[in-house]
Design brief:
Elements (H helix, E strand, L loop, with lengths): L2 H21 L3 H14 L10 H19 L2 H6 L1 H25 L5 H11 L5 H9 L4 H31 L4 H30 L5 H21 L4 H19 L3 H31 L7 H24 L10 H9 L5 H7 L9 H32 L6
Length: 394
């Protein structure tokens, strides 16, 4: 994209944000519809959307901004539950979708496994925005946002394992388990190192502009460091964001710097989201899905069912503990598990030599579009209904 195209997209995003607020519609839904409208009217070329654009450029701000806002004391209390849904839940969801696409869609098992791994990652951007508008906070907001952040990291790890399986042509359960642990914990270690270094440097200055610059280094530096060492760049950015958001004010980040960094990343996430969903709408309108609509419908059902099983199944493990989750909150965790930027970027990273290559790409875009539009439009009524229900007993 050139500077003019960037400016046009930002202008469209601002107009959509104004209209969406007036109509009380999810912002991301408006972006997808606006992008599709631009393509249908011929106002935008069918540009190539690369993995580098979404994964390396637009994804780090989204992850860092969400991680920066999470408070460690609350996160720590629900860490066991969140980690279970984001690890065991992702593995279960991946297995269900892979099996279903192999048996019912007739896909090659390697294509089914890779699709299942990339679509397991959730993106609650529109849900979190809706929760903010509806004044929803506390544990429910934390569970939705934190689980999705961890889910993104483990989903990316599963995808890396699936790509390795594609290369060797067979599944090695022991090797896959080791790779999953290495990629996940390796990403957390890389992000922690970068986050602590940036916090230490922040303690040597009192200029909020330098602090913002260092937070940018942390966001992209942790991501790129993780990817360089073949571990999870997403989890690295999560770790860096949480360290700067929680440890930073104690050891280096000034009060003014913390406020300015928060505002900066809120804007950066707005821009990144705008580009991702506008480009997704443009891509959707420029493709012909007539040959894959039945497979896409099957994939959508499998993805929803796998999310249902993973959320309710994992929460059932904690039903008799202090970490139990009310059924109405489990319902929001399930329906609020939208797919978004990470799923699209991982799909674009698939080698074109893979069986069912084009079909996997097209089905991914359809599933993500359904998730953003159908679930995005209905999640607010669900939140409003949950708020009217009586609070669970302590």
């Amino acid at each position: 994209m050139d500077v003019t195209q960037v400016g046009v997209l930002l202008l469209v995003a601002c107009v959509v944000a104004i209209i969406a607020r007036r109509l009380k519609l999810p912002y991301t839904v408006g972006l997808v519809l606006a992008g599709s409208g631009m393509a249908i009217l011929g106002a935008w070329p069918n540009m190539v959307i690369s993995k580098e654009l979404i994964f390396d450029t637009l994804l780090p701000p989204l992850v860092f901004e969400a991680a920066f806002a999470i408070r460690w004391p609350r996160f720590k209390r629900d860490l066991a539950l969140i980690a279970t849904i984001a690890s065991l839940g992702v593995v279960v969801a991946t297995a269900i979708v892979a099996y279903g696409m192999t048996v019912f869609a007739g896909w090659d098992w390697r294509a089914a496994l890779i699709f299942a791994a990339l679509i397991a990652a959730t993106d609650p951007v529109s849900v979190i925005a809706t929760m903010k508008e509806s004044k929803v906070g506390g544990r429910l907001k934390l569970l939705v946002e934190a689980e999705s952040l961890m889910n993104d990291g483990t989903g990316a790890a599963m995808f890396a394992i699936a790509l390795g399986t594609l290369a060797v042509g067979k599944i090695n359960p022991g090797g896959a388990a080791f790779s999953f642990i290495f990629i996940s914990f390796g990403g957390l270690i890389a992000g922690t190192a970068v986050g602590l270094l940036c916090v230490w440097l922040m303690g040597r200055v009192s200029d909020h502009l330098v602090e913002i610059a260092l937070s940018t280094v942390a966001a992209y530096g942790s991501f790129l460091l993780g990817e360089h060492f073949a571990v999870s760049g997403v989890l690295a950015t999560v770790a860096a964001g949480m360290i700067i958001g929680n440890y930073g004010p104690l050891r280096g980040l000034s009060a003014k710097g913390h406020a300015e960094v928060e505002r900066f990343w809120e804007f950066a996430a707005f821009v990144a989201n705008s580009f991702v969903f506008l480009l997704m709408g443009i891509k959707l309108a420029n493709e012909n899905y007539s040959n894959i609509w039945l497979v896409a419908a099957l994939a959508t059902v499998l993805v929803l069912f796998s999310r249902l099983v993973s959320v309710f199944g994992c929460c059932a493990l904690f039903s008799r503990s202090k970490l139990r989750v009310p059924m109405k909150h489990q319902a929001l965790l399930f329906w609020g598990g939208l797919r978004g930027a990470l799923a699209l970027s991982l799909a674009l990273a698939i080698p074109d030599t893979m069986p069912n290559y084009h079909e996997v790409i097209e089905v991914t875009f359809v599933v993500v579009a359904f998730s953003v539009i159908a679930q995005g439009l209905t999640v607010k009524p669900l939140i409003m209904r949950i708020q009217k229900m009586p609070q669970p007993e302590a």
